[in-house]
Amino acid sequence: MQVIERFAQYLTKHKLKMTRERRVILDHLLSVRGHFDVDDLLVRLRKAGHRVSRATLYRNLPRLIDSGLIHKVEMAHGQARYELMVGRHHHDHMICLGCGTILEFESPEVERIQVEVCRRKKFVMTGHTHQIRGYCGACAGGARRAGGKRG
Amino acid sequence: MQVIERFAQYLTKHKLKMTRERRVILDHLLSVRGHFDVDDLLVRLRKAGHRVSRATLYRNLPRLIDSGLIHKVEMAHGQARYELMVGRHHHDHMICLGCGTILEFESPEVERIQVEVCRRKKFVMTGHTHQIRGYCGACAGGARRAGGKRG
DNA sequence: ACGATAATTGAGACTGTGTTGCAACTAGCG
DNA sequence: CGCTAGTTGCAACACAGTCTCAATTATCGT
Question: How far, in Å, is the CA of B60 from the C1' of nucleotide D24?
Fold first, then answer.
């Protein structure tokens, strides 16, 4: 896996160390598909017999983000989810309020408009968040009649 | 102030009561300009000599949102800010990582694209969040050389 | 106006998520 | 091999927001 190497390079460049814990975390990260939160990952590690502390995991997430391997998705209520960014490029999310499913979408048009807006306001953009909330196809029927206004 | 009336109507319709606390909260809400957080508002109330508990404030915010009088802006790190929506319509935000300033922008184009994206994915949209992070004109110079990657 | 009753309140305990201080440990370098 | 700076686990902490519960109060029917 060249991903491990990539991270190793990142660590070296920043005078950080490739510890057993970091290797373990990265290993398991690569086997997750879709979006996950910190506890998902922690449980996964525990089940595999690894004892990586919560603190260590939290301490290493910023490095994994900074190295470009994962991406953080800030949800409502201060919930954070993560996703592997290896071999992918930027996209945004549609979050189903019914079942929690996260769909992804890309829109070069929106990206272009953002650049335009920023220029107009003399704003230097470093990042953005764009989430659509609602109900996925499967949930829409039930949710609509249940008064799905909230959120 | 017809706003009070509007809220009173909302309360009646939902079999809720117009308590002294709700009146006080609403009163002070109307005098805030720009974005504020819960503590801002709480301090404001305290300074004016009102003793509304934190719990009560938190309990009433969802009603104020639901009635359409205020709007919640979810920021990074689980921070929440609010803004008065009386006499305004939907807009999104640009958040300066340097000084915390919040600029607003509207883009019918983006709204249209969202609708399009939702149709394609059979997603029923009930709301969205669109935030651009970066540095405002005033902060951009200093922030850039300080390594403003994070975020 | 009055009393019944359901909503509301304040206080503080509690939850969930994430952070931090510190002593022990360890990767990486020479 | 041994030094040194980075790292770890733990447990205490921080913080926003929620909940429980007894006491209070707005509203409604009469």
Answer: 18
